[in-house]
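Incident log entry.

Two folding requests arrived from the same account within the same minute. Monitoring flagged them as a possible duplicate submission, but the sequences differ. Recording both here for audit purposes.

Request one:
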Amino acid sequence: MKVKLKDVYYCDYCGKHTLTKLSMANHESHCTLNPNRICRVCNNKDEKCPMCKFSELQLKRKTGEIKYIIYDLQDEMKKYWAKKYNDAEEVY
């Protein structure tokens, strides 16, 4: 029988865990519960980004400002990308 001891890295914001420090550092920089996160969708440039809105709602739930989140992120992302692609096509 083999027994291995390994370091486990946990996210300071959501509790997710990984076995590599690099992947956890990457996760923490984009974690939706991180108040200083870097958005993967808009890079913090677009105030109407659905992922930024979702992150804001999660932070409010974590602090107790709201109890439940009723937000269809998948549907909002579809609308966001459809609008973004339509606007991009009009430019050309």
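Request two (distinct sequence, not a duplicate):
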Amino acid sequence: MRAPARKHNRVRIKAHNGFSLIELLIVVAIILIIAAIAIPNLLRSRQSANQASAVANLRTISTASVSYWVTYSNGYPPSLASLGGPSSAAATCNQAILVDEVLTTAPFQKSGYQYAFVGQQGNVALPPAGCVPGFLGYLATATPITIGVTGNISYCSSEPGIIHDDTTGATPPDEATCNALPTLQ
């Protein structure tokens, strides 16, 4: 009587050596459900981080523009590139080394945003020797590279240093349009 009992136990042990197809499908389904919940949240988090970075970078550009004016007596910088430059070289009015090289080197992109800096209100009448003439005003913009993927909101700033936002993601064409947008709270 003992022999059949042992045979029955061996068969039972062999049957439970692996996972059944149903168990594997349930595990895969649970993983897919978790991924479906987590991935949209991850994308929203990335967009929020990109947008916060864009605001911080615009603040940096605005502060650097004022520093440029004070340091070089050449008005606001002639371009975004003139705010940058290699950190190994000496700072000049054409390469002030006030802003991160990533922002001041073409294609002027960082953290999912495209940056632009345009002089406004005309050039400085008497620029210092060897300097490209600066401007009396400026418009700095940060626009999502891909709206809905890298960010949803565009930002802009001009010489008062106030950051404005546009929830459509459009780039304002001039200073007046920028200043008409809501300010960042």
